[in-house]
Amino acid sequence: MSASAVPLGEGDRVLLIRLGAVGDVLRTLPALHLIRTGFPRVHLAWIVEDPALDLLAGHPEIDEVIRFPRPELRAALRSVRPAAPVVDLRRSLRARRFDVALDFQGSLKSGLLALLSGAPRRVGFAPRHCRELSFLLTNDWARPRSRVLNRVEKNLALAERIGANGDEVAMILPEVPGDGARAESILRTLAPRREPVVVLSPGTSRRQAHKRWPAERYAALASRIRQSRGAIPVVAWGPGEEGLARAVVDSSEGGAVLSPPLGLRLLAALLRRAVLFVGADTGPMHLAWAVGCPVIALFGPTDPRLNAPLGSDHVVLRKGLAMEALSVQDVLEAAQGVLRRPAAVSRPAAPLFSRAALSRSAGGQPS
Q1: Measured on CA atoms in the order 166, 13, 291, 18, is the torsion positive or negative?
Q2: If 0-12 CB within 10 Å is exposed, 13-18 middle and 19+ buried, where does residue 76 land?
Q3: What's the predicted TM-score (pTM) here?
Q4: Rounded to an integer, what distance in angstroms lies between the CA atom of residue 57 and that of residue 356?
Q5: Strand ranges for 37-76 from DSSP E
Q6: What is the residue-wise DSSP string for 93-138?
Q7: Would you list the DSSP string of 235-274?
Q8: How far is the C-alpha of 184 from the C-alpha of 244, rounded, in Å?
Q9: In order of start, what are the domains of the chain with their CATH numbers?
Q10: pLDDT tens track of the chain, all 367 residues?
Q11: Are 46 and 56 spatial neighbours (Cβ–Cβ below 8 Å)?
């Protein structure tokens, strides 16, 4: 492994590997921006799974978005030709003749993809900074300065390994005009008097149910926000979460309203127009701060040092490892503090941070 960074070549074809989850994909965008800014002429492709595919489609800094066929690969395992989709994927990647593969995920699956791509230079994380011995599948290692870094900063360390340097940390996630119009229409229905909207997101994936704050507490919070601040709490939900969202609304004594079904891009457009987001360490939480919406981030078993939202507008709440340790009053007081702030005249299209500020803090101090 070379001791110093080796910059990309001007005509390099580069594959970014960050398959999921949504929050992890979002936290790779600042590294993408650093690479695109430093090397405007390289060809950048990104391979990603279905949940985050829409977020990257049409992104101005990506030349090509490649869908990772996870459902087809799973189905193939039960078929008489289990290797066929892998062979097809390998053929498709190698036909693109990548010079460099960047493994931002640091897992066995992503390391295998880097190898399958045929890229002669495969950049990944050094031992102790990745999982499942994925460093054995890469041949150029980035060594972040610490194992306890916000994931944004860790990803930037990988970008620096290929010579992408700079102090600017930018979240580039443009809004499609049609999504903005649809979000405005939804808000006119949910808040007909143009009341400020607070987005509550009670769901998590089934695998991460340990991150959930109890539904009855979201309901009580919604009722008290409505009574004390006159804001409209809107309960957002994703696939498989509608029942949970309805339970929050039904128990809120008329305080909360249910959002319609929202894809990630439409949720992003809604969050750009909301005054506050409240939720756990999930994709929607990262989407909220990525588009400039103030966040109350509820933490328990996961580490805020790694996963907190970036910026001084946000509040991180944590009382030990159990989500139940956070009371309704804890969250209400934090929400009221944010809602008492003067309303911003406008929000930047791309939230910006400095590297120095990023290294000092990530979303404030946990309580």
Answers
A1: negative
A2: middle
A3: 0.94
A4: 31
A5: 43-48, 64-67
A6: HHHT--SEEEESS-SHHHHHHHHHTT-SEEEEEPTTSSSTTGGGG-
A7: E---TT-HHHHHHHHHTTTT--EEPPP--HHHHHHHHHT-
A8: 25
A9: 13-166 (3.40.50.2000), 177-360 (3.40.50.2000)
A10: 556 899 999 999 999 999 989 999 999 999 999 999 999 999 999 999 999 999 999 999 999 999 999 999 888 878 877 788 899 999 999 999 999 999 999 999 999 999 999 999 999 999 999 999 999 999 999 999 999 999 999 999 999 999 999 888 899 999 988 999 999 999 999 999 999 999 999 999 888 999 999 999 999 999 999 999 899 999 999 999 999 999 999 999 999 999 999 999 999 999 999 999 999 999 999 999 999 999 999 999 999 999 999 988 899 999 999 999 999 999 999 999 999 998 766 777 778 888 776 765 554 444 4
A11: yes
